[in-house]
Specification:
The structure holds 2 protein chains of 2 kinds. By secondary structure, chain A is an alpha+beta fold. Chain A has one domain: Thiol Ester Dehydrase, Chain A (Roll), CATH 3.10.129. Chain A has a 5-stranded antiparallel sheet with strand order 1-3-4-5-2. In chain A, strand 3 and strand 4 form a beta hairpin. Chain B is of the alpha+beta class. Chain B has one domain: Thiol Ester Dehydrase, Chain A. Chain B is built from 3 helices and 5 strands, in the order βαααββββ. In chain B, strands 1-3-4-5-2 form a 5-stranded antiparallel sheet, with helices on one face. In chain B, strand 4 and strand 5 form a beta hairpin. Chain B is elongated, with a radius of gyration of 16 Å. The termini of chain B are close together. Classes of the chains: A alpha+beta, B alpha+beta.
Chain lengths: 152, 129
């Protein structure tokens, strides 16, 4: 018998679409401000800071952060936490380029941890594309959603 | 420039994590979560007594270390793990080493440490040089 048998299962969020309808453009001004905010100067070759993999996909996906949480029946005010983030680039991100996002929730798994108690582990995948559909990167993010309502 | 497995990479240091940068990133990320902006909210949630850096900024610090270590190189893959918070005013240092070399692909292991609390982020990445 699992120690989770006394709990309801995690909501069935897998498969929820995160396809976006926004276009995200990396501007030279914002890229420069972002680079400097992290302690470096912007690149001179027209490439954007690679952390735009996270920013562009989050901003242009089909749900807000609160909306992703809602799809998991989780109140964003309860504090989602980043667990991990992975990215695979097919091409560098460029200043002045415009992108769109497709993606989906891969899984939502209920677990119990000594530190956090009951939590749902959310994994979702986003892809960044040029406007002609060419994929430039794929990212998998894992968030931890602490389920305070199940605290002992 | 030649590289070898086991080589240490030059550290990248943020002398004091900036609450002003967190305000900028709230706009970049379109996510005005107050734990990054308002110390009173952080205190009320029992999360500490300083504003909390957005996780992707910490990833950017680690990317900066890699890009400085391999000028002209390109990050092909990167995986980051979030182990603890980084707070406004923290001194944060990224260190790393070369774990493998295959052709023009260099795989690195790295971590982000803050003074007094140890490793708060860690990861691996492959850079095409």
């Amino acid at each position: 018998m699992s120690d989770l048998d006394d709990l309801p299962p995690a909501p069935d969020a897998a498969g929820t679409s995160l396809d976006g309808d926004k276009v995200f453009t990396i501007t030279a001004e914002e890229n420069a401000a972002l680079c400097r905010s992290t302690g470096v100067e912007p690149a001179a070759d027209g490439s954007a800071h690679p952390i735009y993999y996270y920013i562009a996909t989050q901003v242009a996906m089909g749900k807000t952060v609160a909306g992703v949480c809602e799809a998991c029946e989780f109140d964003v005010e309860d504090g989602p936490m980043m667990g991990s983030s992975g990215v695979r680039f097919d091409a560098p991100l460029k200043v002045g380029e415009s992108y769109k996002v497709t993606g989906e929730i891969l899984s939502l798994v209920r677990k119990r941890s000594r530190k956090l108690g009951v939590m749902d582990v959310l994994t979702y995948r986003l892809r960044l594309h040029l406007l002609d559909g060419t994929q430039v990167l794929e990212t998998d993010n894992v968030w931890v959603l602490p389920r305070k309502e199940f605290a002992a | 420039m030649s590289h070898a497995v086991g080589d240490a990479l030059p550290p990248f240091t943020i002398e004091s994590v900036s609450p002003e940068a967190m305000k900028q990133w709230a706009v970049f990320l379109a996510d005005p979560n107050p734990i990054h902006l308002d110390v009173e909210v952080v205190k009320a949630k029992g999360l500490g007594d300083r504003v909390i850096n957005q996780g992707p900024i910490n990833v950017a610090y680690m990317m900066n270390m890699l890009m400085r270590a391999f000028p002209g190189g390109r990050i092909k893959t990167m995986d980051s793990r979030f182990l603890d918070n980084v707070y406004g005013g923290d001194r944060a240092v990224v260190t790393g080493r070369i774990a493998a070399i295959e052709g023009n692909a260099v795989t690195c292991e790295f971590s982000l440490d803050v003074d007094g609390r140890g490793t708060v982020n860690s990861g691996t990445a492959t850079i095409e040089i």
